[in-house]
């Protein structure tokens, strides 16, 4: 596998990320306009074309367009001002978490600041979760985590399985910590988490090293050792962060996301 600079080649599946609440036609219109907004066809701060113009463009009724615009607003992409029209929000900085996830899946680009924020969030949330989980861990949890790592060990060359196992392992620990807010927030980050994990596992040596670190955490959890669990989780996250940053160009601000979970040079 060739090395790349400034690029994370990752896997992103949009299915299941966006929940459409309108009719089939309005959902399709929503999706097209959403992609146009994310790709800059309609810049932040600009006014969206009128319902009539959009109806003509998409060969649909004004009702379907109106429903699509309502969905754009609900997803954090637009805001409507009475008597003035509908305007494009700064969805990346002022929108919802869902809007950020949708933007990443459409553009397949994550900037360094967002990546830094994700890593900091993970460190604070997951080290605390591991510490709390150690005192609450059940036999059922231990059995689940043990089976998870066995599956991981049997699939060290399968990036898709590794990514799934990674998320499930960490999510189980957060669940065991009994922090409902952390659990819900972590679930919301799943698509972005998968971006990071898929790239991490594409780095030579990462699957085996990750498994070894996970096993150390499992041992600490079995002993119900809160401090050791905290430190083991910290080691896992620091290792992943270090390997990812070693694999991208320090001067590169934008990181490209693709589908296949392998490194490739930017074209």
Structure description:
By secondary structure, this protein is mainly α. The protein has two domains: 24-98, Arc Repressor Mutant, subunit A; 108-256, GntR ligand-binding domain-like (Four Helix Bundle (Hemerythrin (Met), subunit A), Up-down Bundle), CATH 1.20.120.530. Helices cover 63% and strands 5% of the residues.
Q: What about the largest sheet?
A: 2 strands, antiparallel
CATH architecture of the largest domain: Up-down Bundle
Mind telling me the CATH class of the largest domain? Mainly Alpha
Total helical segments: 12
Q: In angstroms, what separates the terminal alpha carbons?
A: 16 Å
As a whole number of angstroms, the C-alpha radius of gyration is 21 Å
Order of helices and strands: HHHEEHHEHHHHHHHE
Mean pLDDT: 85
CATH fold assignment of the largest domain: Four Helix Bundle (Hemerythrin (Met), subunit A)
Number of strands: 4
Q: Strand content of the residues, in percent?
A: 5-15%
Give me a quick take on this structure.
The protein is mainly α.
Could you list some keywords that capture this structure?
mainly alpha, elongated, single chain, two-stranded antiparallel sheet, 267 residues, Four Helix Bundle (Hemerythrin (Met), subunit A), Arc Repressor Mutant, subunit A, disordered C terminus
Could you give the topology of this structure?
Elements: H1 24-38, H2 51-57, H3 62-74, E1 78-81, E2 85-88, H4 91-94, H5 97-107, E3 109-111, H6 112-136, H7 139-153, H8 159-176, H9 180-188, H10 190-202, H11 206-222, H12 226-246, E4 254-256
Antiparallel strand pairs: 1-2, 3-4
